[in-house]
């Protein structure tokens, strides 16, 4: 599958996950998009969905094998080493935090300052 990227390295999967478009995420995963692809700063579709509170998308990405403990690149300009769990917690998305913990997300502090 040929994957187009935006200026920050986001794929269609990133955009769909960030905006909570579950049906589009399902289609893209079925078409073979890499569930763990990252933008140039290391953000994954799971991180974007978790940060924005898109519960159904988070569940779908986890089911598809998304790495629940993956961190953003700590050396990228805007990255802070955060995980999807940290992003969901930061925004108060308790149901997503509980789900990520239940599937093995690391609960140790992960941000780098």
From TrEMBL:
Domain of life: Eukaryota
Record keywords: ANK repeat
ANK repeat extents: 8-40, 41-73, 80-105
Pfam families reported for this sequence: Ank (PF00023), Ank_2 (PF12796)
Chain segments annotated as coiled-coil in the UniProt record: none
Protein name as catalogued: Uncharacterized protein
Lineage of producing organism: Eukaryota, Sar, Stramenopiles, Oomycota, Saprolegniomycetes
């Amino acid at each position: 599958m040929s994957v187009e990227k935006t200026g920050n390295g986001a794929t269609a999967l990133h955009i769909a996950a960030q905006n909570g478009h579950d049906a589009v995420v399902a289609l893209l995963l079925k078409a073979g998009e890499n569930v763990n692809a990252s933008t140039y700063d290391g953000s994954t579709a799971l991180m974007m969905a978790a940060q924005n509170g898109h519960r159904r998308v988070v569940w779908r990405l986890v089911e598809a094998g998304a790495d629940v403990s993956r961190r953003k690149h700590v050396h990228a300009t805007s990255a802070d080493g955060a995980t999807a769990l940290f992003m969901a917690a930061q925004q108060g998305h308790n149901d997503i935090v509980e789900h990520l913990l239940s599937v093995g997300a690391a609960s140790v502090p992960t941000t780098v300052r």
